[in-house]
Amino acid sequence: RLYQIPFEMPDCEGESETRTLHLVGDFSAPAEFFVTLGVFSFLYTMAALVLYLRFHSIYGENKKLPMADFCITICFAFFWLVAAAAWGKGLTDVKAATRPASLIAAMGVCQGPEVVCNAGTTPAMGLANISVVS
Fold it and tell me: Where are the transmembrane segments (predicted)?
């Protein structure tokens, strides 16, 4: 939810005055999907572990239970792949929305003929990149 994050921009009309701007974009849906799927996967894993360890005889005698377990596992694997791809796309969109060159281009004060704007520092995205890889 980048639109909730304010940042200060100097106002060229007054030397000491600043304007508060907000970033643009809401990329929370892919992250929420990724985390929700992770929580459901964890809960299913705990339930399956209890079934395997505590009710092993029921699991072995019933022929439909292993097949249902296999189908649920395949569904979770597919949705995990989709969620990881969505999280990667969401991260790419966040990077594009917070790229210093994009922010400077969107600022009206930087569009003047004799105005020179620079970003200062580039945001560090190393830990975010690692979250997509893992």
Answer: 33-55, 67-87
Indicate the helix (H) or strand (E) that contains 43: helix 28-54
Backbone angles phi, psi at 20, to 5 degrees: -95, 120
**pLDDT > 90: what percent of the chain?**
22
Q: Which residues contact 40 (CB under 8 A, 6 or more apart)?
A: 76
Indicate the residue type of 13. Answer: E
Instruction: Give tens-digit pLDDT for 121-133.
Output: 677 777 776 766 6
* 70 to 42, 51, 66, 67, 107: CA distances (angstroms): 16, 14, 6, 5, 53
Query: What does the mean pLDDT of the chain come to?
Result: 79
Question: How far apart, in whole angstroms, are the C-alpha atoms of residue 129 and residue 134?
Answer: 9
* Local structure of residue 19 (DSSP, 8 states): E
Task: Supply 111's token pair.
Answer: 């569009």
Beta-bridge partner residues of 118: none
87: β partners: none
- Amino acid (1-letter code) at residue 69: D
* Burial grade of 93 (CB within 10 A; 0-12, 13-18, 19 or more): middle
